[in-house]
Specification:
Elements: H1 15-24, E1 28-30, H2 40-47, E2 52-55, H3 60-63, E3 70-73, H4 79-87, H5 91-102, H6 104-123
Parallel strand pairs: 1-2, 2-3
Helix pairs in contact: 5-6
């Protein structure tokens, strides 16, 4: 229930305002009901040190490291417990792990590895 105190609808936010809201949140709630291909908001949250509580659909299992950067559940029943578990995670570890996987530098290194492997594979043809 959105009550304006413990839960407040912020609408569309960007940049510094988004980072302030995510960084000040105890957890990002992500109760999706369809398999989204890539959840950028999950990464944005984790880079702010905010753990994620999410339904295991779409890219969620690939992005959220269970018990480290967030907690997930298969369906809505049990989501409340998942939120509680996520809020107990160490925010410093959430941020550190997100930076290790999703910082610009980490992503550039990962893309370079894929390109190198692709080039080596095509050279064998």
């Amino acid at each position: 229930m959105i009550d304006g105190h413990s839960i407040e609808y912020a609408g569309c936010v960007r940049g510094r305002e988004r980072d302030r809201l995510l960084g000040g949140a105890r957890a990002l709630l992500y109760p999706i009901q369809f398999p989204e291909a890539f959840g950028l908001v999950l990464i944005e949250s984790m880079l702010c040190g905010t753990p994620v509580a999410a339904i295991q659909l779409g890219a969620v299992p690939e992005i959220v490291e269970e018990g480290v950067t967030g907690c997930t559940v298969e369906a809505m029943p049990g989501f409340t417990d998942t939120v509680q578990r996520a809020m107990a995670l160490d925010r410093r570890i959430v941020r550190r792990e997100a930076e290790a996987r999703f910082s610009a530098e980490a992503m550039a290194r990962a893309y370079a590895r894929v390109y190198e492997q692709s080039a080596l594979g095509s050279a064998a043809l």
